[in-house]
Specification:
256 residues, alpha/beta, 6-stranded mixed sheet, 4-stranded antiparallel sheet, binds adenosine-5'-triphosphate
Length: 256
């Protein structure tokens, strides 16, 4: 369960949203690459201050789902609503402005740029210079290590620090919903824990998180909702994950 358990009001951007209120509602999503369909009929919800975990093996369709939600792949079917507003027809940039940000797989930071300049890149869709600066300062306040290294080249930081920077980049736009594609990938277990703690802290601050993972033991314990996909289709989902959920998911994955 996430740390964001208390009721109350949170304010991930300018619009106050109550903890537990649905932010992103995905119904019967279909997505793919040209004529190739990779995701069929997927439905899930991301709520304010909560973590929805999307699990699946290699090639299950997790990244495709995130790319479609972020507007980087066309949505071939179904509906996607952000705070009740249909966003399926919006461009990626419009979706960022509407409140969705994606942290792609693979710690994609610019190695030759400083931490601060990477954050500037993260805020490139924010037209107002004041708002961009505010987003960057908030990101630096949230991660003191990045503030300490603000002038350091990203390529000189460790893999875990680069992953935190990649998350911070996405936060510059002050998203309501953060889409995270396997943030633990390629990290040592101890560093994975640090990254997962960051994800939990974001949810505790009111952000709705859609976390894609392959490592069940990392993701399920912090999940408020769990969906498992295989071959692009949902095979298991729960809005009340409990102690047995990891075992249930492991069993589904080994039998599919
Ligand atoms: P992984 O954990 O390995 O990243 P995933 O669950 O994120 O896996 P996707 O990357 O979404 O899976 O892939 C889903 C399906 O779409 C796979 O069959 C994959 O081969 C296919 N696919 C991915 N990218 C493309 C592409 N650019 N063109 C065509 N098919 C693709």
């Amino acid at each position: 369960m996430s740390a964001a358990r208390s009721s109350g009001v949170v304010d991930p951007t300018s619009t106050p949203v109550a903890v537990g209120e649905p932010l992103l509602e995905v119904s019967n999503l279909a997505a793919g690459y040209g004529d190739i369909r990779a995701v069929w009929d997927l439905s899930l919800t991301v709520e304010a201050g909560r973590i929805t975990v999307l699990l699946g093996r290699n090639g299950a369709g997790k990244t495709t789902t995130l790319l479609a939600l972020a507007g980087m792949l066309p949505i071939q079917g179904g509906s996607v609503q952000l705070l009740g507003r249909d966003i399926a027809g919006m461009s990626a940039q419009q979706r960022v402005r509407a409140g969705i940000a994606l942290v792609p797989e693979g710690k994609r930071v610019f190695h030759r740029l400083s931490v601060y300049d990477n954050l500037m890149v993260g805020g490139v869709t924010v037209h107002s210079r004041t708002a961009r600066k505010k987003g960057i300062e908030e990101a630096l306040d949230r991660f003191p290590l990045l503030a300490q290294y603000r002038n350091k080249r990203a390529g000189e930081m460790s893999g875990g620090q680069q992953q935190i920077l990649a998350i911070a980049q996405a936060l510059v736009v002050r998203p309501k919903v953060l889409l995270l594609d396997e943030p633990s990938a390629g990290l040592a277990p101890k560093i994975m824990d640090d990254v997962i703690a960051v994800v939990q802290a974001l949810a505790a601050a009111g952000t709705g998180v859609l976390l894609v993972e392959q490592v069940i033991d990392i993701a399920v314990p912090i999940a408020d909702r769990v969906t498992l996909i295989e071959g692009g289709r949902e095979i298991y989902s729960t809005a009340t994950p409990g102690e047995d959920t990891a075992a249930v998911v492991t069993q589904h994955m080994s039998h599919s």
